[in-house]
Recover the amino acids of this structure.
């Protein structure tokens, strides 16, 4: 897994009118990783899913004293046509 910060983006949640915070999230795509400031209306937690750049991401690692929150893309279900 290569770690390469490519860009810094902000994702605005779909809820309006409630307090929110921006949470730095490491988006680990496998080949490379990037950081995005995700605007959330609740505290992040393991298993939380969100949409970003046309993909669904799932939080797979909690923040600790060394690294921040990590999310990986949710695999697209394969279907035989």
């Amino acid at each position: 897994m290569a770690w390469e910060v490519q860009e810094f983006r902000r994702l605005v949640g779909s809820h309006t009118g409630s307090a929110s915070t921006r949470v730095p999230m490491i988006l680990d795509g496998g080949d490379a990783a990037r950081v995005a400031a995700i605007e959330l209306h609740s505290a992040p937690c393991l298993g939380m899913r969100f949409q970003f750049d046309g993909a669904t991401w799932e939080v797979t690692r909690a923040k600790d004293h060394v690294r921040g929150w990590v999310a990986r893309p949710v695999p697209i279900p394969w279907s035989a046509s």
Notes: Strands lie at 8-11, 21-28, 33-40, 49-52, 55-61, 69-73. Residues 4 and 33 are 5 Å apart (CA to CA). The longest strand covers residues 21-28.
